[in-house]
Structure formats: structure tokens, C-alpha cells
């Protein structure tokens, strides 16, 4: 359940160099779009002595200076989108088309995943030369990190780069569960129709939302997971800002110094945390076995009338059980950024997000947006390159997630 420990983002150190892409030995120059919109063309070089990095996904967009350093140190091969389709990708691995590459580089969450889940079918075909797989994104349930580790491959995520954005979004969702923002916003939007019914909806929200709304201050915030994201949430919602009392559960207890800094109280069991929390935020990686963490049984342990927020993974929550808990009033309100069957949303939860019925607007639903900022994508790209440069340079990975499964190479 623990996430990588809090690590500062490394700085970029530009040096002269090049940026090859393609599967052929000689690479044409490619454009990289800088943050200011300028097109930077990096000249190509090729050296068979350089370690090979397999770049899956779109070209670099945000960190051209770091990419100069990166492509100077390594020979970067970027397969086409067609080659990244699963059947074609498998065939290319069987043919050893890209040689004995030493790293896999996926700098963007939206591209590079055309081959689907990284399971035994793909991992078993990787050359023994591969040492590191560095990818954008905080979640890593799409890759069998245990099997990668057992093959001697360090998997590095980029959750550190998304921590600020996800925590900010979580703050909004926590506030929503206390202040019924879906109800308030939808009622105002509906009222723009200027019909008698729309005006009644506006007036009903104005009159009745206050009776079920509360300030977050002095309520207990329960964090399931106290990694980078959990720590950011604790700092933002804790005593120094919103005045919530921070409680947490994690498989690894944090240091006394960090607990003191965040004003956080540790609970050894999930049940202990749930029973004292007025609002629970799920901010832990998906389980490796694919089973939900929030079930009918765990929801029954929640403090009656509490609130629930999920900015982790939809697979961690039994959504039908959550809908039942909301129906009964055992859970007062919820906010979900992630969903079990994305892009589909649970129809019962969707109905509870509306403004009709006895308890309107009790659920806030968003489209897996929590980490989605330009700054996050800049960090994904930078951190993925820095992880590869560190590992292939003989140093420790910055954000590894599977060291406990890593098999030492002979």
C-alpha cells in the first residue's frame, strides 16, 4: 500500500547532444515542441557503443534540454505506432528488431501503451539486457512489476511529478463532500433556463443545502496511504490550512518527524482508521492481486455519516457496495475521480450526482482528471529520463516501485 517515499524532483542539466528516433541505424532529425511553442530540432547521431533505449510513445515535448543530454548518452529508438500494436510488438521482440536495448522509456501517459498490459507474454520476450522501465503516470497496475523485478528490471513510475496536482484535486473533492458542490453547481446551471421548475431547483438548493453542509475544520481526515500524494493532501488539509485532524493507515509507518510535521496520527489497521474518520481519502496504488480494498465489509466499518473520496484507482472500490452505503446514508457523500470500468461510470453513482430525488448532488464524479496538468506532464517526461540516466549510469533509481521484488543480476 505504500508509495515511493517523498523525493524532490531532480533538476535538468542541459548539455550538447542529439535526439535520434526510428528503428533504422541512421536517424533523421526530429522536432520537439518546447513549452513556449517553439520547435526545437535536435540533430541525429548514431553510435553502436551507446546503450539502447526503447522509446515507446510520442516524441519529447516539454524538456528538450534534458532530451539532448539523454540522447547524447544513449541511442534512442522509437518504434512507430503500428509497431507498438500488441501483435506487431510481440513479433518485433521475437525478431530482436531493436537489439539488446537496456531501457524502456514511456514519457507520456496518453501514448505508448498500444501493446496493452505488460504481462508475462511481453516481459518474457524482453532481452536480458533490459535494466529499467521508466514510465509516465503514478499508477502501475497495467504492468506486472513483480515479474519485471524477478527478471531484474527496475520499474520506475512518475507519481512524484503528479503529487501536487492530485493533492490539489483531492482537496477540491474533500470540500465537495462537505459542501455538496455538485448540487450547488448543477442547481445554478439548471436555473439558467429561467423556467419555473428551474427556479424552484435553485431555491431548493439555496434553502436546503446549508442544512447538510459543514466546514471541514475540526473533522477527522482519514488517508489510506501516506506516500507522496497522501503527504501533500495532509499538508494542504491539515492544521495549517483547513484545520482538519489528519489520521492515516499505511503498510509502512512514517517517521516520527514526518508525523509531527503533518500532525498525523497512525492507525495500524484499516478498520481502526475507518472508524474514526469523518472523510476518507483513498490515495494508495492499486493492489497487485486486482482485488478491491474498499468492500462491503470495509464500508461497514466506516464511521456512520462519513464521506469517501477516491483519487487512486477505480479497481480498489466495490462501487455497488459504495452505492448501497450511500443509499442507506451510512456514507453521506462521495467524490470519485477514478472508476472501476473506465470510461464507463457506475449508473447508480451517476444518478446520485444529479439534482433530482431526496438527496441530490451527493456524489462528485470526474473523468480521471486529478493528475492532469501541464506541470504534471512536464514532470512525467523529465522524471522518466532522469530515472533511466540514473540506473544506466550506475546510480540508484529515483522513483522505483518494485525493488522488493528485484532479482540481482549475476
UniProtKB/TrEMBL annotation:
Chain ranges of the D-isomer specific 2-hydroxyacid dehydrogenase NAD-binding domain: 202-353
Residue span, D-isomer specific 2-hydroxyacid dehydrogenase catalytic domain: 118-402
Keywords: Oxidoreductase
UniProt-listed Gene3D superfamilies: NAD(P)-binding Rossmann-like Domain (3.40.50.720)
Region called Disordered, residue ranges: 1-30
GO CC field: cytosol
Annotated Polar residues bias: 1-25
GO molecular function, one term: NAD binding
CDD domains: Mand_dh_like (cd12168)
Name of a matching Pfam family: 2-Hacid_dh
UniProt name for this protein: D-isomer specific 2-hydroxyacid dehydrogenase NAD-binding domain-containing protein
Amino acid at each position: 500500500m505504500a508509495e515511493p517515499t517523498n523525493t524532490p524532483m531532480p533538476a535538468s542539466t542541459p548539455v550538447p547532444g542529439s535526439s535520434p528516433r526510428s528503428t533504422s541505424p541512421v536517424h533523421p532529425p526530429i522536432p520537439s515542441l518546447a513549452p513556449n511553442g517553439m520547435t526545437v530540432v535536435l540533430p541525429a547521431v548514431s553510435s553502436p557503443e551507446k546503450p539502447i533505449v526503447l522509446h515507446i510513445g510520442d516524441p519529447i515535448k516539454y524538456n528538450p534540454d534534458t532530451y539532448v543530454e539523454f540522447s547524447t548518452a544513449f541511442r534512442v529508438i522509437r518504434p512507430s505506432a503500428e509497431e507498438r500494436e500488441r501483435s506487431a510488438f510481440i513479433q518485433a521482440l521475437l525478431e530482436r528488431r531493436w537489439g539488446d536495448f537496456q531501457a524502456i522509456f514511456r514519457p507520456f501517459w496518453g501514448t505508448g501503451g498500444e501493446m496493452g498490459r505488460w504481462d508475462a507474454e511481453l516481459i518474457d520476450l524482453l532481452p536480458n539486457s533490459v535494466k529499467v522501465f521508466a514510465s509516465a503516470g503514478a499508477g502501475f497496475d497495467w504492468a506486472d512489476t513483480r515479474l519485471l523485478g524477478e527478471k531484474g528490471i527496475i520499474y520506475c513510475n512518475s507519481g512524484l511529478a503528479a503529487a501536487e496536482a492530485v493533492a490539489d484535486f483531492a482537496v477540491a473533492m474533500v470540500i465537495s463532500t462537505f459542501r455538496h458542490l455538485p448540487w450547488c453547481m448543477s442547481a445554478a446551471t439548471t436555473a439558467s433556463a429561467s423556467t419555473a421548475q428551474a427556479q424552484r431547483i435553485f431555491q431548493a438548493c439555496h434553502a436546503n443545502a446549508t442544512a447538510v453542509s459543514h466546514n471541514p475544520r475540526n473533522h477527522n481526515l482519514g488517508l489510506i496511504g501516506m506516500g507522496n500524494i497522501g503527504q501533500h493532501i495532509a499538508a494542504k488539509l491539515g492544521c495549517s490550512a483547513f484545520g482538519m485532524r489528519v489520521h492515516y493507515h499505511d503498510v509502512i509507518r512514517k517517521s516520527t518527524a514526518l508525523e509531527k510535521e503533518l500532525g498525523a496520527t497512525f492507525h495500524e489497521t484499516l478498520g481502526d482508521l475507518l472508524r474514526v474518520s469523518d472523510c476518507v481519502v483513498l490515495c494508495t496504488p492499486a493492489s497487485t492481486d486486482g482485488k478491491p480494498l474498499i468492500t462491503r465489509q470495509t464500508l461497514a466499518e466506516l464511521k456512520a455519516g462519513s464521506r469517501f473520496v477516491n483519487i487512486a484507482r477505480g479497481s480498489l472500490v466495490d462501487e455497488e457496495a459504495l452505492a448501497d452505503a450511500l443509499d442507506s446514508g451510512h456514507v453521506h457523500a462521495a467524490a470519485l475521480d477514478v472508476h472501476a470500468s473506465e470510461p464507463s461510470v457506475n449508473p447508480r453513482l451517476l444518478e446520485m450526482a444529479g439534482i433530482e430525488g431526496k438527496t441530490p448532488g451527493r456524489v462528485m464524479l470526474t473523468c480521471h482528471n486529478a493528475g492532469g496538468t501541464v506541470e504534471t506532464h512536464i514532470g512525467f517526461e523529465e522524471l522518466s529520463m532522469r530515472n533511466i540516466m540514473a540506473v544506466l549510469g550506475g546510480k540508484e533509481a529515483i522513483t522505483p516501485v518494485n525493488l522488493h521484488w528485484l532479482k540481482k543480476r549475476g
